[in-house]
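User: Polyamine-transporting ATPase 13A3, Phasianus colchicus:
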Amino acid sequence: MQEIYGYELCRWKLVLVTVGVICSGGFLLLLLYWMPQWRVKATCKKTTLKDCEVVLLRTTDEFKIWFCAKVRVMPSLGASPLQNLDPIVHKVPNGHTVHFCESAAEENKNYLKKYLPVSRAIRYFTHHSVKYFWNDSAQSFDVVRGLDDSTFCSSIHNEHSRGLTKEMRDYRKMFFGINEIAVKVPSIFKLLIKEVLNPFYIFQLFSVILWITDEYHYYALAIVIMSVLSIVSSLYTVRKQYVMLHDMVAAHSIVRVSVCRRNQEIEEILSTNLVPGDIMLIPSNGTIMPCDAVLLSGTCIVNESMLTGESVPVTKINLPNPSEYPKATGDEIYSPEAHKRHTLFCGTSVIQTRFYTGELVKALVVRTGFNTAKGQLVRSILYPKPTDFKLYRDAYWFLLSLVVVAGIGFIYTIVNSILNEVPAHTIVIESLDIITITVPPALPAAMTAGIVYAQRRLKKIGIFCISPQRINICGQLNLVCFDKTGTLTEDGLDLWGIQRVENARFLLPEERACSESLLKSEFIACMATCHSLTKIEGELSGDPLDLKMFEAIGWILEEATEEETALHNRIMPTVVRPSKQLFPESKQATDQEMELFELSTTYEIGIVRQFPFSSVLQRMCVIARILGEKRMDAYMKGAPEVIASLCKQETVPVDFESVLEEYTKQGFRVIALAHRKLESKLTWHKVQTINRDAIESNMDFMGLIIMQNKLKQETPTVLEDLHKANIRTVMVTGDNMLTAISVARDCGMILPQDKVIIAEALPPKDGQAARINWHYADTLTRCTSSSPAINSEDIPVKLVHESLEDLQMTKYHFAMNGKSFAVILEHFQDLVPKLVLHGTVFARMAPDQKTQLVEALQNVDYYVGMCGDGANDCGALKRAHGGISLSELEASVASPFTSRTPSISCVPKLIREGRAALITSFCVFKFMALYSIIQYISVTLLYSILSNLGDHQFLFIDLAIILVVVFTMSLNPAWKELVARRPPSGLISGPLLCSVLSQIIICLVFQTVGFLWVKQQPWFERWTPESDACNILDATNISSAHSGNETLDDEHNIKNYENTTLFFISSFQYLIVAIVFSKGKPFRQPCYKNCNSHFNYCVYVLVCVPYEWRLRILIIVIVNAIVSVLMEEAVDRLGVCFLSSLFGYREKTPKAKYMHLAQELLVDPEWPPKPRTTTEAKVPSQENGSYQIITLT
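Assistant: Predicted structure for Polyamine-transporting ATPase 13A3:
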């Protein structure tokens, strides 16, 4: 959602801004470039949206980001792209295309020719690759939707299935544009300009000009070289990411396609010319879909791994025509999400098609360009939502505080220089120089060093990162959401056994389903036919569950050829039959072998019609006929509760619920089967048009298939490590709730003694308000004797409660399914924080619901990680603070992190590296702050005697000390294990500020002591080239002593004893604070090995001083080091207590919302809800804002 405001150009404001730009030397122009809202308000005046020339947009989230866009005008013959323009088209001499009716009078024709192109001017603007057109009726800018918006299924068949004329196609193309997901790779020049205009580089440019003016040529040159290297590195990284994304999107994005025109003519065009409403012909050998299209006829086998991450081929069938069903329940609006079984999505690969002789496989284009599913994925990568992290927010305050310090020095320098009658030219340069000193030029390189090293270490352990800034945020993760199948458990399912039903009673469980006695049973017939398997290049392919089920019975699937389908008109006779090995072999002669051959070829089942699996209905159904039988059979499989509700109650065992619950509690995935003998009057052709609901009723319950989904070996260990580190774990899955709860208990996510509360939310119905029913799940540990069929190993779980917070958070857990979650989000907004605070199992969750859950957790201030295998997890992976994909498919291109090994062991590794990188960032920030202040103190003290540091001294400090220290400070690898303590999240905290301030005071004191003490020495005098403080004066010493701006008269007063003393002390202070701030355990490895190498650099002497004074300086440095180390230790151990007692702090409310909420719930007698109670919803009050809000996708 974004707010939108209209503006029009104001000439007198434009003149004022132009004058301001000239007077400010271009600085005002830079300021307006950085702040788009100021630019618009400074040059335009506010007006209505209807008349505006520029729109100003602001996001309504917590970031409040501003954008501006220019409103353009497009001549058009109609107001809507989907309106029907069937009049005759005439071309007029001026080039305008004019439409008018044949019955129009001659004067009307002239009127249309003259005024129509002008009167139908359409206003629009483009934002984030999407066009927004002015809607006169709604008085707002709206996105132009394709046929996916408010189009009924019946009208798709009856109105849109005829195709478009070329004129209609050209008209729609004006609105929808070229069908292309264009990821433009910016030119090097554009990227360079954008990078160079960064505020920090502008400040560096100003600094370099100032230093050159002050004759600091070497230092200015060094900074220029550093900046150029930094810019080149940044340009290379950014351009490389653009090229990678462009190559991924551009692959097969432009293809030649055949379209069917309204006059039945087949035309071959480029896919870039497709518009919604075109009828695209799908070739039999497959293609890459260039748009989103709904299948009108035929069947396609599609690989959707680009969007879902799931490489299993999916069968797409044509959209049913509601008008063909005489007993249809009613027409419905087409939606790509609700009708995804009939929709071919852009970027997916059509492997092959099934079609009928004389009939083409046709698909109606519904969305093009960035409006497609692939386009929306690419847009989310191109225009990501900013990551909110306290460290980056505090960084601005850090820089602002340095600017304040610089301002104080600026004023002091001016006053001191005026009192000492320094020339005005020198006053200006020196006062501005003090500002450049406080903002260190090496800051960008210093900040990125730690992240770059962390990125390299992650790459070594098989974790790839496309968003380096997220590494720091991963150091703060305190909650991780896990997908179940393929993430916590093994990817595939194994058939554990079957449990058939006879005479409404469960038989004993059977391990094998391919026994001789069951060969011709209806149970096996259902397993053989009720699936969506297909053959691709001779290999069976399809849903893993279907594949395991079919392989377990050992049957053979044969698909009909095109010639065979011609015999049955619209029928696809896929045939299944048992393999020869399944038949009894205890026969005697060759005649018996012939009988066996005849038997195996005569017992076949043909699949006449398939109703595919629907996640909404939670079932699938097929109509089949055994060869030689007159009547057909209906077979159904799906979720046990759903199947049982569609069966005759007398065929369902009375202990059905208890048996099912026992299996699901053990973590098994249970599928129920049902069968029904159809009436003899149902012919093959009637079956093709019969309504699904007419078949899926009055079924006979046949039994259960029990599938086993084993935990991955490393899952319990990894989750235990996370619990020890006080990191919450949450399961988000599309599986059954009881199965998910069982897996959560098995892997240690829910401890044995913890309660599980199931929240069952029901939407409003029949005038009743929405309500939540609370049920307590069985909290007893497994009892394997209760079911002789189940025998699995217990997984030892260590009980860990290292903090009060962790203890309170694990006493009880909420579990809910996707339907309940949707109802709670809509009708129980006030309960959402309470439920996500203790919610551990979220079952049957749709992809968008996973994203909503991540957002709900973030709203209570959790730092959320998401770990999934890429299948339906893309949205959540992108939205989480740290998304880790266990799949290397294209769907994971939007995930910040991708693990080469599909194991959740990457999660603690990533968090450890994140913590190390975060601590490194804090160390570098603190060090750079002290570096600026130490140099600031030195220069301020030297200004008091009208002196300064020399060019070579600045160069030595920045290159030989600071850069080396910063880069080696960042080399520390992560600590070996996760600990319960988390690093701080922000720079502005009591202990951190106390640490920095105490070190500043120590450095100030010791520099001041050195500065004043040197003046008390008996040999001290104002230094001249003839000074002989060392009693040794020869050419070697003089030449080695020369530094800075080397002139005989030393007009800048660089060479003096005070300068040498302060330079020597401050050089060691840089090293001291680097060692003091380089924290090791418990987040990083020790740093002493990295720091030892620095001391040999600090041997630079400006002027010769007596050895006695050198020893005294060394003593000052040693005492300084001891005091700094002791002070830092004291701050670490006693800082929080000291600050609390100093400022009289009481036990304050926690900053994080989830901790504050946890404290409130501890004293709430009504929470958690009691068993078997109900909570009813209240009607929320709504308020309308004063500004217009539009939805920007």
